[in-house]
Amino acid sequence: MSTNGKPGIVFAHGLWADGSCYSKVIPTLQAEGYQVISTQNSLDSLEGDVAAVHRALGRVNSPAILVGHSYAGTVISAAGTDDRVAGLVFISALAPDDDETSQSLIDKFPPTDVFKHIEVADGRIWMRPDATKYFCGDLSEEEQKLVWAVHTVPTVNLFNEKLPGTAWRTKPTWFIVAKNDRTVNPELERFVAKRMGATTIEVESSHVPMLSHPKVVIDVIRKAAKAVQEAEMVAV
User: Fold this and answer.
1) What span, in angstroms and rounded, lies between the C-alpha atoms of 125 and 157?
2) What is the pLDDT of residue 78?
């Protein structure tokens, strides 16, 4: 724990995003004294993205909170077994169990609109420009164009990969359900939030609450940080 008693915070982004997807959240948390870092996931492999989170944990205070959006829920579920991690925050995220992959979890629910607006090329799954309507449709047109311009593109087999470890079974969790999500089915989000026993909040948002409702996301992270801080004080 840092001298100010605040846990570190490590962000991980999902498909069709990069670390800048947290640009409306990070400055406020930094101003409040948190050590914050966001990984830049290559989306080449689940193993590589989990390794990126492990490296980032070494750059902030321990204990730390992992924050994962979308596919990064799968990433932090595996990476979160690290002893430096004290809690996990999921944002409109996947959270496979030991016997699931990202894809097998998705397949349990009706498909969403965004997957009708993708293109597979060069071994990657690209969003077409019109896909932003279903990915981040509550942002301005200017912001949607920026999201598309910087989106990181996953390999075609990424969702079928699996690593051992399910941190949400043993560590405290918080979950933000995006009620208007057209990328990850909101019913999937509610299912995994209930399954992990997460402290859950629902927000009238597209798939990207950290961009369309950053104050909500900041508030949830603050509450997670406070809970972790209080737990550390009790342990001491």
Assistant:
1) 9
2) 98
Report how far residue 206's alpha carbon sits from residue 214's, in angstroms, rounded to the nearest whole number.
12
Q: How does strand 124-127 pair with strand 118-121?
A: antiparallel
Apex 126 CA angle, 150 and 21, nearest 5 = 30
**Average pLDDT value for residue range 61-86:** 97
Residue 42: CB partners within 8 Å, gap ≥ 6? 48, 49, 52, 152
Q: Which residues fall within 8 angstroms of residue 32, CB to CB, at 6 or more apart? A: 6, 222
Q: Are 135 and 16 in contact (CB under 8 A)?
A: yes
Find the mean pLDDT for residues 110-117: 96
pLDDT band at 20 (very low <50, low <70, confident <90, very high): very high
Q: How many CA atoms lie within 13 A of 33 on its CB side?
A: 10
Q: Which DSSP symbol is given to 155?
A: B
- Going 72 to 80 to 45 to 48, the CA torsion angle's sign is positive
Alpha helices in the chain (DSSP H): 26-31, 46-57, 72-79, 102-106, 132-135, 141-150, 186-196, 209-212, 214-235
